[in-house]
Amino acid sequence: MFAIVPFLAVSLLGSCSGLSLPVQEQSKGSPWPLPESITTSDNALLLVGIDEFRFFSDGVTCTTILDAAFRRYRNIIFYGPPEVSGTDKRTKPPKRKGAGYPGSVSGLTVTVKNCEQYPSLESDESFSLTVESGNASSLTANSIWGALSGLETFSQLAYYDGSGMLVMNKTIISDSPRFPYRGILLDTSRHFIKVPILLQQLDAMAYNKLNVFHWHIVDNQAFPYESISFPSLSEQGAYTPAHVYTQEDVAEVIEYARLRGIRVMPEFDTPGHTFDSWGSIKDLLTPCYTKGQPDGTFGPINPTLNSSYDFLQKFFTEITQVFPDHYIHTGGDEVNFACWKSNPQITEFMMSMGFNTNYSKLEEYYEQKLLNIISDLNSGYAVWQEVIDNNVTVKSDTIVQVWLPKWQEEFAKVTARGFRTVLSSTFYLNRVASPPSYDWESYYKVDLQNFTGTVEQKKLVIGGEACMWGEFADGTNVIPRLWPRASAVAERLWSPQSVLSLDQARMRIAEHRCRMLRRGLQVQPITGPGYCREEF
Fold it and tell me: Which of 116, 235, 334, 441 is catalytic?
């Protein structure tokens, strides 16, 4: 699922003087992603001070999640960052004057009808929001996850007027996402990313209504996950003992995500993408041969040994206990057959199974046994498209992630077989234009249902996922490289199909970039010259 194209060089300068671009105009108080239905009055209302403003809870309490959200959004609205030091003068809220405004917003009543402990693919994220004077503003949602989306939208309606006062326009919103699966893949194997940066990433996802953190936690290069059952994996497979996610770290990430309505789906990609980092498990990897002799190198997991499946059964039993989400991503892409071909024991096994020299059949044999293990654990699974392309028998609720070119042909094929699918082919954000000014517009233009198929097939498209592979990304640059470019993907996955205007999107994403900057995220400019009221 990775093509080695870290930078797409685009020569736009033409001279040493740079580009002559206009200053980008910004919207004011326009939510991102754009809601399904929004009616905004020209009448602005003053936001009362932080000491006077109140959130009220009605209906089901969902105390842990909702109370945490109330505290977080009070800080976000009035200060900027979700956690604020009392000595941070940069985020000190302005004094309220109120002159010239017909009224003020002093509270928001939140009504939740259903409280779930963890978000899921089936979660109802719809909500209705009304902004009125006094305490008359209201937010109603069928689930706590819709309430969180509504609180994010409410916070985005606030903007500064010309005198530096925080105001909101009278607004009526009815909203729900176009697609239920809206993800970000982050690779923490090629470069280790510290937990605080992962938490910032989750904040950014919440600010953009993205709800799946696809954690590509291990790969060939390193195994930073601390396994309870097989501690040698990280002891020998991580870069150093400091480059390991402990069980406490993983639990912190999952809980932080849960409180923001985000699912954490781990990926352990096999049988390929295991060469070095999984090597601490005896006989798990296939010994490679040169001229009929072992050459000391290893290839994919050995699919011919029962011990391989004994290990996988115990390992994935642990994973289902550590990660509460229903889905595990099992990978299944880019299996290099060269090592299997060189190994005489593999060849002998293939002949005994009637595979002859068809190594795709051997891969299918492995995948079938692995997915049966996952199914027996009552877990769902997501796979890269090669698993389906190789005709492996999978469960009906399998999620197929498409990443190769010609995605429209693949969508037609996968959905014709009745499988739900997620698009990543067009959303590889590790590929960066130089300068990265306008590549976000290409993401924004993608229509995930633009392929040849029936209405029923197009309903099987459940969303998309922006990917950030880690060959050239770590904690120093992953946030600015992703954001707000990933915001374009987020709006495409949330907003109605009819939301297409790039002219409006440029103004709105410029405001949203400043909004995220005010909240403490180091996000890059992508719309040309301009400024934010509060710079990083």
Answer: 334
